[in-house]
């Protein structure tokens, strides 16, 4: 029993120290990368985006080294880089907002306007064509998602939407709002459903990070042309529900 308690305390110390080291690295890397992105505002979008992608890769590596967090992605064969798409994914932590920028094609995503005011990180994100919305005005937010989202898709950018609207605990899935499906329906671009369990190791709103392998599963394209947004949304939600069961086994 004494040995077990000693091992448990040792693991807890490693988790605290690793999480602290990761936090320091995250802050330093953000302060280093963000000004570079801002300076590159005079260059094409692809330059700024690739710098941001480099930052995302650095963060994922720090999470692995400091916290023992790895990830595996299933379904990359479903990705067609020659065609833009709308991603509908479950949302459990900040991990996916970083990781998607690393292993998915160039993209934009929804952001609360207030996040773009955060020093360094927010300023840099503001140069990467975010779809900034006011969540207190749902009608205005939906109109902006459809208009700005369609523009981004036509430019070849993917649009990442978390239809639950907020981060959920690892054992829960919130109901899907129809905004992302409406964007797909009105723009004619397909939907790519994604499911993940990042909250097991990178819990929402938690300083502590835990060692383990995050599972990500990418589903096949869901056609949107000639379909109702409600049907598109239900198909994506049903796929995510089933895929969550599969990755939790």
Task: Explain what the structure shows.
By secondary structure, this protein is α/β, with parallel strands linked by helices. The chain contains seven helices and seven strands. Strand 3 (107-112), helix 4 and strand 4 (131-133) form a beta-alpha-beta unit. The chain is globular, with a radius of gyration of 19 Å. The mean pLDDT is 92.
List its traits.
249 residues, 7-stranded mixed sheet, 7 strands, single chain, 7 helices, alpha/beta, 14% strand, 48% helix
Question: Summary?
Answer:
It is built from 7 helices and 7 strands; from the N terminus they run H-H-E-E-H-E-H-E-H-E-H-E-E-H. The protein is α/β, with parallel strands linked by helices and 249 residues long. Strand 3, helix 4 and strand 4 form a beta-alpha-beta unit.
Task: Outline the fold blueprint.
Layout lengths: L1 H38 L5 H23 L1 E6 L11 E4 L5 H9 L3 E6 L8 H5 L5 E3 L4 H17 L3 E4 L17 H9 L3 E6 L15 E7 L10 H19 L2
Parallel strand pairs: 1-7, 2-5, 2-6, 3-4, 3-5
Antiparallel strand pairs: 6-7
Helix pairs in contact: 1-2, 2-3, 5-6, 6-7
Mean pLDDT: 92
- Kindly name the structural category: alpha/beta
Beta strand %: 5-15%
Task: Sum up the overall morphology in one term.
Answer: globular
The strands making up the biggest β-sheet line up spatially as 1-7-6-2-5-3-4
What pattern of helices and strands is seen along the backbone? HHEEHEHEHEHEEH
């Amino acid at each position: 029993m004494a040995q077990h308690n000693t091992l448990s305390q040792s693991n807890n110390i490693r988790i605290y120290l690793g999480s602290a080291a990761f936090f320091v690295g995250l802050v330093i890397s953000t302060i280093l990368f963000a000004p570079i992105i801002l300076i590159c505002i005079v260059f094409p979008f692809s330059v700024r985006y690739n710098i941001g992608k480099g930052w995302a890769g650095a963060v994922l590596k720090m999470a692995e080294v400091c916290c023992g967090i790895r990830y595996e992605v299933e379904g990359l064969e479903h990705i067609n880089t020659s065609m833009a798409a709308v991603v509908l994914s479950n949302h459990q932590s900040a991990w996916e907002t970083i990781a998607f920028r690393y292993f998915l094609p160039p993209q934009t995503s929804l952001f609360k306007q207030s996040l773009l005011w955060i020093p360094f990180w927010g300023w840099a994100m503001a140069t990467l064509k975010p779809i900034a919305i006011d969540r207190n005005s749902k009608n205005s937010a939906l109109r902006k998602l459809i208009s700005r989202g369609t523009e981004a898709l036509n430019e070849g950018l993917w649009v990442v939407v978390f239809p639950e609207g907020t981060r959920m605990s690892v054992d829960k899935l919130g109901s899907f709002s129809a905004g992302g499906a409406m964007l797909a329906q009105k723009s004619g671009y397909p939907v790519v459903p994604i499911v993940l369990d990042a909250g097991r190791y990178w819990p929402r709103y938690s300083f502590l990070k835990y060692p383990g392998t995050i599972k990500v599963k990418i589903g096949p394209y869901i056609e949107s042309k000639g379909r109702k947004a409600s049907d598109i949304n239900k198909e994506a939600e049903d796929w995510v529900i089933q895929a969550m069961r599969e990755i939790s086994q």
